[in-house]
Amino acid sequence: MSNSAQIGVTGLAVMGRNLARNFARNGYTVALHNRTAARTHALVEEFGHEGDFVSTETAKEFVEALERPRRLMIMVKAGEPTDAVIQEFAPLLEPGDMIIDGGNAHFEDTRRRERDLRGQGIHFVGTGVSGGEEGALNGPSIMPGGSKESYASLGPMLEKISAKAPDGSPCVTHCGPDGAGHFVKMVHNGIEYADMQLIGEAYQLLRDVAGYSPAQIADIFRTWNTGRLDSYLIEITAEVLSHVDAATGKPFVDVVQDRAEQKGTGRWTVQIALDLGVPVSGIAEAVFARSLSGHADLRAASRELAGPKAKPLGDSEAGAFADRVEQALYASKIVSYTQGFHEISAGSDQYDWDIDLGAVSAIWRGGCIIRAAFLDRIRAAYDARPDLPSLLSDETFAQEIAAAQDDWREVLVAATRQGVPAPGFSAALAYYDALRADRLPAALTQGQRDFFGAHTYRRVDREGSFHTLWGGDRSEVEA
C-alpha cells in the first residue's frame, strides 16, 4: 500500500468521521481505520467526493498508508479504549512517528502515555478538540500538547482545519508539553459548565421573577447577544427558548425533564482545582447543580418544604429587572473565567508547562463552545500583562464589575426573597467579595484548628509559627 496519506484517523464515530472529512476538505490525503470496517467503507461511499481518502481494514494497512513521520489520530472513548488502541498501533510505529489523542482524556492519563511512548521514540500528542460535531467538520478550537517537535510537523495541519477567529487567526496553539493540551481542554469544559449554569439561572430569574415567557426571554437573549454578552452559548440559548414542541404546542423547555447530565470534565476541573488549592467555586456550583438536578427522589421529597413562592413583577418593573440580570450575568461570567484561568495558571506552574494564557484565550474566540466576543479583551489583558494575577486585576474588567455590582447584589436579594435558586450568581459574588475583603474568618478557623489539633498559626505582627496552650494558662509557644 502506498504511504501517501498525510494523516490517519482511527475511530470513525461522529467526531472522528467529521475530523477526517475536515482534513480531506482542506486538501490532505486521509487514511481511515475503524474497528468495524463497515463504518470505514460507509464514510468513503458517502463522503468520498469531498477529498482523498485511503480506506484500510487492518492496523498494518493503516500504518503502511501513512507518510513518514506518521501522524495517527485516535478518536475513541477515553480511558481503556484509548489505551487499547495505543497498544495495538505503537508496535507498528517507528521513532519520530506520532499518535494524536483527540478525545476528552484525563490529562494525567496523557502524561502517562506521553512518558511511556517517549521511551520508544514516539511522540504522543494529547489534543483537546472543542466545538462538537459541527466544529469537528467545519473548524474546531484545537488545544494540542506534546513536544515542540511534534507540533512543528502537525501544527500547520491543525491550523488549516481549525476555526478562524474574527481577525482570521487560526484557533490553535501549542499549549505545552505532555498533558498541557488536555488540561486546558478540561478547564475549558469547566468554564463551559459555569457559563451554562449562569445562563440557566438568568433564564429562571427572568421567568419566575420577571414573569416573562420563554419566547420573550429568547428575544431578551437575542438582544444581549448584540452587546458584550455576544457568544455562542447566548446565541443558542435564544434558539432553544424560542423552539416550540411540535407534539404538544408547548415551549420546548417545558417538555424536557429538568435533569442535566454530564460527561466528567467538569468534575475533573473541580477535583484538580482542589488538588492544586485553587478556588473554582463558580465551576463547582455548576457541577453540583447538575448533580442535584438528577436526584429526582430527593427533590420530590423536598418539594413541600417551607419557603416563598415566586411572584412575578409587573410589566414596568420586569424590564428594569431584566437589565439587572444582564449585569449579574456578565459580572458572574467574568468571575468564572477568572477562576478558570487561575486554574490553568496553577496547573502550568505545577507541571512546568509555561502555558500562554493570552494564547489560550485567543484560540477560544472561534470554534469552541465558550467562544465569546469578550475573549478578545481577555487576550489583550494577558498580552499587556502576562503576569496578571487575576482578570479582576485588569483595570477594564474591574471597572465593569464595579459598575455591575449594585445590580448583581439586587438580583441576588430578589432571588433570595422569591425563593429562586441562583447558586452560580451567589458563588461568583461571594468569591468577588472574599477577594476584596480586608479580613476573612480564616483567622478564626485557624484558631479552632490550633485548639483541637495543635495545628499552629501565624501572627500578623511577627514571623514564625505559634501554638497556644489552650488547656492551661493559654500561654503561647513558638512551634
**Shape, please?**
globular
Distance between the termini: 72 Å
Average pLDDT over all residues: 95
**Number of helices, counting only DSSP H or I runs of 4 residues or more:** 19
Strand order of the largest sheet: 3-2-1-4-5-6-7
Which structural class fits the helix and strand makeup? alpha/beta
Radius of gyration, in angstroms, nearest whole number: 25 Å
Q: What is the helix fraction of residues, given as a range?
A: 40-55%
Number-wise, the strands total: 10
Uncertain segments: none
Strand composition percent: 5-15%
The helix-strand sequence is EHEHEHEHEHEHEHHHHHHHHHHHHHEEE
Q: How is the main sheet built? A: 7 strands, mixed
Q: What can be said about this structure in brief?
A:
This protein is of the alpha/beta class. The protein has helices at 14-25, 37-47, 59-64, 80-89, 107-118, 132-138, 148-161, 180-208, 214-224, 232-242, 265-276, 281-293, 296-302, 315-351, 357-363, 375-384, 395-418, 423-436, 442-453, and strands at residues 7-10, 30-33, 53-55, 71-74, 98-101, 123-130, 141-144, 457-458, 465-468, 476-478. The protein is globular.
Name the descriptors.
single chain, 479 residues, alpha/beta, 7-stranded mixed β-sheet, 3-stranded antiparallel β-sheet, 10 strands
